[in-house]
From TrEMBL:
Residue ranges crossing the lipid bilayer per the database entry: 51-72
Cofactor(s) required for function per UniProt: Mg(2+)
InterPro entries (alphabetical): Isoprenoid_synthase_dom_sf (IPR008949), Polyprenyl_synt (IPR000092), Polyprenyl_synt_CS (IPR033749)
Domain of life: Bacteria
Keyword annotations of the record: Magnesium, Membrane, Metal-binding, Transferase, Transmembrane, Transmembrane helix
Full protein name: Polyprenyl synthetase family protein
Family per similarity comment: Belongs to the FPP/GGPP synthase family.
Length: 324
């Protein structure tokens, strides 16, 4: 068994039920909409967030129908956000495959994203738990707010780690936070355990995004994300922020501002990438990532089912050890 198979083993049955529900939700009697939804379905990934919903539910009780619909609601909201993000970022690829806006156009992408958002809220409502509807709605707000903070930060002359973490808490970690929290809420866990679940998800989500940011400093065609791609979009992530605040002179601070203003050439970005790697930016980011990993694992109750604890431990290790 590979690591993903081991991670999902405690919830294999529930995950099978989730996949049937997910596939059924991506169907329409409108031909063009059905075509786009079928394309999205084919691009479906490893289902890391639904697995987290199911594992976190099982940490406290048996997953139920509400767990499945909550997991589906979050996955559809996540999918919608990716479709909309590719339009905002004018991106033609998503994880090495053509994005929806590249295959069709921006108008179709925005409308399909809206359809997925509406379907997401429909499945949250099916649970009959207002707490889950509230969670999904707040997640939609946080994802949008994270994008806006990131856009506003492009004109910022400071290189703030605080703003960086604020953005990733709302953009990436919020999805993991909501996934873990929804799992606990769906099985009516105690208030204390729901808070524990949310914090566990947040730790994983932050570690996940730091790992993604590290990828940007290394060539990997599988990712569809060449070195410096974040910087081509004016984004400075944790490795760069550490070096800018601790190691960089005026030359590279000015270059960083050019990157934010979309004025840096590819050669200048490559020079900046080399500088960040040379000055220990990657090692710093890795240390922070492992710190979040350890903080997450410390939250797992020792009295919980051993197979679920092991799966959640492997889950976060997979997040920080993955190569794409």
């Amino acid at each position: 068994m590979n690591k993903i198979e081991l991670i999902r083993k405690p919830v294999e049955k529930e995950l099978g039920e989730f996949k049937l529900l997910f596939d059924d939700s991506l169907k329409s009697s409108t031909p063009l909409l059905n075509e786009v939804l079928s394309y999205i379905k084919k691009r479906n990934g490893k289902m890391m967030r639904p697995i987290l919903v199911l594992l976190m539910a099982k940490l406290f009780a048996a997953p139920n129908a509400s767990t499945l619909h909550a997991a589906l609601s979050l996955e559809l909201l996540h999918t919608a956000s990716l479709v909309h993000d590719d339009v905002v970022d004018e991106s033609n690829q998503r994880r090495g495959q053509s994005s929806v806006n590249a295959m069709y156009d921006n108008k179709v992408s925005v409308l399909v994203g809206d359809y997925l958002l509406a379907t997401s809220l429909k499945h949250a409502a099916v649970t009959g738990q207002i707490e889950l509807v509230d969670l999904v709605s707040r997640l939609g707000q946080e994802l949008s707010e994270g994008e806006i903070i990131q856009l506003a930060n492009i004109n910022n002359l400071d290189f703030s780690e605080e703003i960086y973490f604020d953005v990733i808490r709302k953009k990436t970690a919020a999805l993991f936070t909501a996934s873990a929290e929804c799992g606990a809420v769906s099985v009516k866990a105690s208030e204390g355990n729901i808070k524990l679940a949310a914090l566990f998800g947040e730790m994983i989500g932050i570690a996940f995004q730091i790992k993604d940011d590290i990828f940007d400093y290394f060539e990997n065609e599988e990712l569809g994300k060449p070195t410096g791609n974040d910087m081509l979009e004016g984004k400075l992530t944790l490795p760069a922020l550490y070096v800018l605040n601790n190691k960089a002179g005026e030359k590279y601070r000015q270059l960083a501002l050019k990157i934010r203003a979309f004025e840096a050439s590819r050669d200048e970005i490559e020079d900046f990438v080399r500088f960040v790697k040379q000055e220990g930016g990657i090692e710093y980011a890795q240390n922070v990532m492992y710190d979040y990993r350890n903080r997450a694992l410390a939250l797992l109750p020792e009295t919980a089912d051993e197979s679920v604890r092991e799966a959640l431990t492997m889950y976060i290790d997979y997040v920080i050890e993955r190569n794409k």
